[in-house]
Design a protein that fits this description.
five-stranded antiparallel β-sheet, Methylamine Dehydrogenase, Chain H, 2 domains, mainly beta
Length: 484
């Protein structure tokens, strides 16, 4: 998400193993290649690399399967191309399915935000919602024929409608899924840039309700997201970020009952070193603590715990509104915080999160990386580090389920610094755990033999991209090393 300079600091800031319970109730040149990314970790591989122009890689999102192949699709935006574009890709093949151009709809900045809109037009195929912040508009497109279903243009001049968008399921019980959109520069009588969130009917694009920020300057609505049904009433609830909320203007997160639009908990505030919690990244965390209630993710990539732009992420209980855990970058100028739900990658019953550190210098200046953190305890389950300077790999990141049929969760990762995005192949959390039951056990030998005979890459224990008898010795070594 960025300007032409592609930085965040100058902005106002399996198959379907992702749990369905928590699903969100160019003119540019494109190319898709396989395995072209350069990663530090052995075995890390890009299934597809997408390239574009005009700020391509500003935002990325999953879309539930529209092609019928059982895999989620991938959406990537380029905010500075052709009035802004949203490119829709088949995640399994890497093929471009469609490109939505802002110029075709009279808007600028389309794709500043984008999301799965749910089922809006009644054909049982997921639809797409995009925000065009520059113009101030929200557009809903058909996932079936890519036609425009609704367009809501700015309601109040200069409010930045479309800065954030999300699907929230059917919150008014009319049988049609609805959407929400942030307008963080809305000015009510109480003061400038208080911010507003619009709840928009999927049936006719009318405004169901508006929610306003607390104080002037809060910029309420810099992030919005459906978070699943945390109240147990059958209606999707939602969260809103306000990047300058709180007494110290360090940002906060608000959680709402979708049915009543009432605030469920007191505002969740940033830590003392926070910068702009909720500026862009608020979303579902799945059921991180395995208590049966969906939890919430929030990122603050500007947190200064160890110096400017260290970054911090939060996982918040959907049951209590309390912070379950936070994770902080390990150095200044890391920018940790860009991400959300990954899914349960290690089969321990806890949903995990994927978080980008888009300006990480671990391998090269501004190369970026992603970490997958355990929902159970916040420990690092996997790291993928880009080695090419300036890529800003991790500009956005999300789990997209299993797109290549190997029963492992894959990831869509934007690299906004170089107009790129990647689908990163899922990996076993523990190589010796071939049957993926969460532990290295003798039964994994039988599973390894089965995988070897089938040529399944889970048998590739030495991570050399081939399945050979040498992998048996590697499996023994991995087994003796045990699982973390």
């Amino acid at each position: 998400m960025g300007t032409a300079a592609h930085t965040r600091s100058n902005i106002m800031s399996v198959r379907t193993r992702l749990p369905t319970k928590h699903a969100a109730c160019l003119c540019a040149l494109f190319a898709a290649t396989s395995g072209q990314a350069q990663f530090l970790e052995p075995g890390s591989k890009a299934l597809h690399e997408f390239t574009g122009v005009g700020g391509f890689g500003w935002a990325a999102s999953e879309l539930r399967d529209i092609t019928g192949d059982g895999a989620m699709e991938s959406m990537i935006s380029a905010v500075n191309a052709s009035g802004g574009t949203i490119s829709l890709f088949n995640s399994a093949t890497g093929d471009l399915l469609h490109e939505f151009k802002g110029t075709d709809f009279g808007v600028a900045g389309l794709g500043y935000a984008l999301a799965d809109a749910g089922f809006v037009d009644g054909d049982n195929i997921p639809d797409i919602v995009g925000g065009a912040r520059s113009t101030g508009a929200v557009l809903v497109f058909s996932g079936n024929d890519y036609s425009l279903i609704h367009q809501v243009n700015q309601i109040n001049p200069g409010e930045a409608l479309g800065h954030a968008v999300a699907g929230v399921g059917d919150i008014n019980n009319d049988g049609v899924d609805d959407v929400i959109a942030g307008a963080p520069l809305y000015d009510p009588p109480s003061g400038n840039n208080t911010g507003r969130v619009y709840v928009i009917s999927g049936a006719d694009a009318s405004i169901i309700e508006t929610l306003d920020g607390e104080d002037a300057g809060d910029q309420f609505g810099t992030a919005v997201s459906g978070i699943g049904d945390i109240t147990g009433d059958g209606v999707c609830d939602f969260a809103v970020g306000a990047q300058n909320a709180g007494a110290a203007a360090k940002g906060g997160v608000f959680v709402y009952n979708g049915a009543t639009r009432e605030l469920l908990f007191p505002r969740i505030d940033a830590e003392s070193t926070g910068s702009n919690l909720g500026q862009f990244f608020v979303g579902p965390a799945g059921d991180a603590n395995a208590d049966g209630t969906p939890d919430i993710y929030a990122g603050d990539f500007g947190d200064s715990a160890l110096g400017g732009s260290t970054g911090r992420c939060y996982v918040i209980s959907g049951a209590t509104g309390q912070v379950l855990f936070t994770r902080t970058g390990t150095t200044f100028l890391q920018g940790l915080g860009c991400g959300r739900l990954a899914g349960d990658i290690n089969n321990d019953g806890h949903d995990d999160i994927v978080v980008g550190s888009y300006i990480s210098r671990d391998a090269a200046n501004n190369a970026g990386k992603i970490d997958v953190f355990s929902g159970a305890d916040g420990s690092i389950l996997r790291t993928v580090t880009n080695t090419v300077a300036g890529y800003q790999f991790g500009f956005d990141a999300v789990g997209i389920g299993d797109v290549n049929g190997d029963d492992l969760i894959d990831f869509l990762v934007a690299a906004g610094g170089q107009n790129r995005a990647f689908i990163v192949r899922g990996e076993l959390h523990c190589l010796a755990d071939v049957n993926q039951n969460g532990a290295a056990e003798p039964t994994d030998f039988t599973a390894w033999v089965t995988a070897f005979n089938a040529g399944d890459r889970k048998a590739d224990q030495n991570r050399d991209e081939t399945v050979t008898p040498a992998d048996f010795t590697a499996w023994i070594d991995n087994y003796n090393a045990g699982c973390p």
